[in-house]
Design goal:
The complex is a heterodimer of chains A (about 270) and B (about 500). In chain A, about 50% of the residues lie in helices and about 10% in strands. Chain A is an alpha/beta fold. Chain A has 2 domains: about 120 residues, no CATH class; about 110 residues, Rossmann fold (3-Layer(aba) Sandwich), CATH 3.40.50. In chain A, helix 13 links the parallel strand 7 and strand 8. Chain A starts with a strand and ends in a 6-residue tail after the last helix. The C terminus of chain A is likely disordered. Chain B has 3 domains: about 130 residues, Fumarate Reductase Iron-sulfur Protein, Chain B, domain 2, CATH 1.10.1060; about 250 residues, NagB/RpiA/CoA transferase-like (Rossmann fold, 3-Layer(aba) Sandwich), CATH 3.40.50.10420; about 60 residues, no CATH class. Chain B has 22 helices and 10 strands. In chain B, strand 5 and strand 6 form a beta hairpin. Chain B has about 500 residues and is of the alpha/beta class. In chain B, the strands form 2 sheets. Chain B has a 6-stranded parallel sheet with strand order 1-10-7-4-2-3, sandwiched between helices. The model of chain B has no long low-confidence stretch (mean pLDDT about 95). Classes of the chains: A alpha/beta (about 270), B alpha/beta (about 500).
């Protein structure tokens, strides 16, 4: 399959390891990955902050960049983020319509119908649960709200994780509770958000797993920020990073990060 | 017998009685700053919301047609709202045909005047009340008190709130912010006929309230209620409750006054089939609530001989004009969204500064006050902060028995707050920052450079960033910054 990668802005600029892992994983599975150069952002941050008019050009750029999927340029589009794929599926057309651009709205819906969150692409489109990964650690999984409630990915991520060789999946208490990120909510309602992520971190630590994973680095950024602040030693990593890891090409704890990376890189193998 | 020393320490929550039941206190973040520190409140809420959450899940899971019921509820509400003027006129005719009187109130002041006038005409100086959100919304008790009429709340939790001088903090369990020791203190200090040596045993507290209320039920000549439903076709009004206090109020006094928001009207009697399944399971997590009272006008020789229905607008027509926001009017006040909300669970209801707290309050309160199509609410009004009081996690939408898409309404209202129709928005730190970010996110060229700024920071920042100046401090208050990459993904990809 020819698959276009919808990198998402946060992953592109702050967590490139998730996109690199998605590329490694899908190439290993025999697919051709392309990264459309025109992409920037899906517009979610502006929409959720109350700036829908400002989001229209962002949405237009996204939809135009990925529109060639409709002419067969790619077979599918994949994004390693539940909330960004959720924004493409459930927000972009609404924003375009509100901005008076019906044509863009129709195009946005058509492109979104070909856009998949990573676990959906793997399970539904490629028909896989065992991707041949190896990750010899205990891991707990946070489902993330938009993956769970907007995209309804259900148990696809945990089915993928259970098939990973030598991985021990530990149940996360109160897993379906929001981590408190919510984009600009984390800043505008900083204290409430802090109370939420503190509880999430406590539940993660209670599993005793040295790793927490999710399908979205935006939630993980919040969660790992709290885990690091509390010196818990628990490391956050994206589902793609686990699925890309094999015996021959194992997960790299320091994927080319800056000075601060050493903080997170302390967790070795069991 | 236990001994309790010292002066009574009942302090109202919030500390000062609000002037406006829909808008009091500070903007949400500042109000939450205070309530988040109340560890007792957070412990109460955590236990209570979790218990009721599990009960609700159990009784909704056992119905094979639960999702169909939700669809039916949503459909009936949407069609009722589409025909609201006709249904209300039909309701008026039906009620009058059965001997009831109908009054129309544009706002809280008008409704209060009408109710006070009816009570004064009976000569009564005292009324008993069934728990009702709408009379909280208009501040009826305070208005009656000013006219020398004593209103007594007869729902146990509502009585606690009234005696303490509190505002309700939950739609269904308004005293959820009080624990039983506090309730004992409130009864001891404020309930004149509380027995000596009252303990905080729940059964003892309930018995004390029961004795206190029984005397009032028996002597009351006027009762005031809200309405869960009103059937346009028949003129039937319905109230569902758990304690039987409502049944006493609705049957014993000679005069009954029902105040209802205009959105409570349903077209047909059969519609109750849907809502009487949806409401108890969603609100208390019961298959059926203990008491369901319905009445139609006046029945000679049986029950109240004078019935008044007050139809209240108070911003509802304004909300109805908003294509997306109007779904807030579908709410049946079950409070399931409060019980599943991770924000409500931590801040409690008082942080919302309105009698309607939680996710539904965050979309209903601002619209009743004027955020919406007509945009009369000032963007700096405390109530304008409510649509932002959500992480958009969507748990409320999943729990709502009439499928109100609260996250979409929140996002819509955020835009209305930032861009009030027909008014120029003042620039804020957010609009300037997001405007700048938007510029970088509309093309590959600008975004490539925005990403490179991040990688430059990875060389500049220390190995661990735990504290940043404002506004970065909003992040670092409880979180470290993530380790930043040396290279953006797109630069890595180009170089590959």
């Amino acid at each position: 399959m020819r698959i276009a990668l919808f990198t998402t802005c946060l992953v592109d600029a702050v967590f490139p390891q998730a996109a690199q892992a998605t590329v490694r994983l899908l190439e290993r599975l025999g697919h051709t990955i392309e990264v459309p150069a025109g992409q920037a952002c899906c517009g979610q941050m502006h929409v959720n902050s109350g700036f829908q008019a400002q989001a229209v050009p962002i949405v237009r750029n996204h939809v135009r960049t990925f529109a060639p999927v409709l002419e067969g340029e790619w077979d599918a589009i994949v994004g390693p983020s539940g909330s960004c794929v959720g924004a493409a599926r459930h927000q972009q057309a609404m924003v375009a319509r509100r901005g008076g651009d019906e044509k863009l709205a129709g195009l946005a819906d058509a492109v979104a119908a070909r856009t998949y969150e990573l676990s959906q692409l793997l399970v539904d489109v490629l028909g896989l649960t065992d991707v041949g990964a190896w990750f010899p650690h205990a891991v707990t999984y946070h489902p993330t709200c938009h993956s769970m409630r907007m995209l309804r990915v259900g148990d696809r991520p945990t089915r993928l994780l259970r098939a990973v060789a030598d991985l021990e999946l530990r149940d996360l208490p109160e897993a379906d509770s929001c981590c408190g990120f919510g984009g600009t909510f984390a800043l505008k309602n900083s204290e409430t958000s802090g109370a939420m992520v503190t509880d999430k971190a406590r539940n993660i630590v209670s599993t005793g797993a040295p790793f927490v994973t999710a399908g979205d680095w935006s939630c993980l950024m919040n969660i790992s920020g709290a885990l690091d602040r509390q010196n818990t030693g628990v490391r956050a990593l994206h589902l793609a990073e686990i699925l890309a890891s094999t015996r021959d090409d194992p997960w790299d704890p320091d994927p080319g990060l800056g000075g601060a990376a050493r903080v997170g890189a302390r967790t070795g193998a069991r | 017998m236990s001994t309790h020393l010292g002066m009574p320490t009942v302090r109202p929550m919030p500390a000062h009685a609000p002037d406006e039941p829909l808008r009091w206190g500070q903007p949400f973040p500042a109000a939450a700053h205070d309530t988040l520190r109340d560890t007792q409140l957070r412990a109460n809420l955590r236990t209570a919301t979790r218990t009721i959450r599990d009960k609700r899940l159990a009784v909704t899971a056992e119905l094979p047609d639960w999702e169909d019921l939700r669809d039916a509820g949503a459909g009936i509400k949407a069609s009722a709202m589409a025909a609201l003027p006709e249904l209300l006129e039909q309701l008026e005719v039906s009620v009058q045909a059965r001997g009831g009187q109908v009054h129309w109130a544009r706002d809280a002041a008008e409704a209060n005047r009408i109710v006070t006038g009816i009570v004064q005409a009976t000569g009564a100086r005292e009324v008993v009340k069934v728990k009702s959100m709408v009379t909280q919304e208009i501040g009826l008790n305070e208005h009656l008190a000013a006219a020398g009429i004593q209103a007594t709340e007869t729902d146990l939790a509502e009585l606690i709130v009234q005696l303490a001088g509190d505002m309700p903090s939950h739609i269904l369990v308004p005293a959820i912010h009080r624990n039983r020791e506090q309730i004992r203190e409130i009864f001891d200090a404020r309930m004149g006929d509380a027995p000596d040596g009252l303990t905080s045993d729940p059964a003892a507290l309930a018995a004390a309230a029961r004795a206190h209320l029984r005397a009032r039920f028996l002597r009351a000549e006027v009762a005031v209620s809200g309405a869960n439903f009103a059937i346009a076709q028949t003129g039937t009004i319905g109230v569902v409750e758990s304690e039987g206090n409502g049944r006493m109020c609705l049957t014993l006094p000679r005069t009954l006054i029902t105040v209802m928001g205009i959105e409570k009207v349903l077209p047909r009697f059969e519609d109750l089939e849907v809502f009487l399944q949806l409401l108890p399971r969603s609100s208390t997590g019961e298959r059926m609530n203990p008491y369901t009272s319905t009445w139609t006008g006046v029945t000679p020789g049986d029950g109240p001989q004078e019935f008044h229905l007050v139809l209240l607008d108070n911003g509802r027509t304004r909300a109805l004009a908003d294509e997306i926001g109007r779904t807030a009017l579908h709410c049946i006040r079950c409070s399931a969204c409060l019980n599943v909300c991770p924000v409500y669970e931590r801040t409690g209801g008082h942080a919302y500064g309105s009698v309607y707290p939680g996710p539904i309050g965050a979309i209903l309160t601002p619209q009743l006050l004027g955020v919406g199509e007509t945009g009369v609410l000032d963007p700096h009004d405390p109530a304008a902060s409510l649509p932002f009081a959500s992480s958009l996690c969507g748990a409320c939408y999943d729990a709502c028995p009439v499928k109100i898409d609260i996250p979409t309404a929140l996002v819509h209202l955020r835009d209305r707050v930032q861009h009030p129709p027909g008014r120029r928005a003042r620039p804020t730190v957010w609009s300037v920052a997001l405007g700048f970010v938007a510029l970088s996110m509309r093309s590959r060229r600008t975004f490539r450079w925005a990403g490179r700024i991040v990688t430059v920071l990875s060389w500049v920042l220390p190995r661990r960033v735990r504290r940043l100046p404002f506004p970065g401090s909003l992040w670092t208050a409880s979180r470290d910054l993530p380790p930043l990459p040396r290279q953006t993904f797109r630069d890595w990809w180009s170089a590959r």
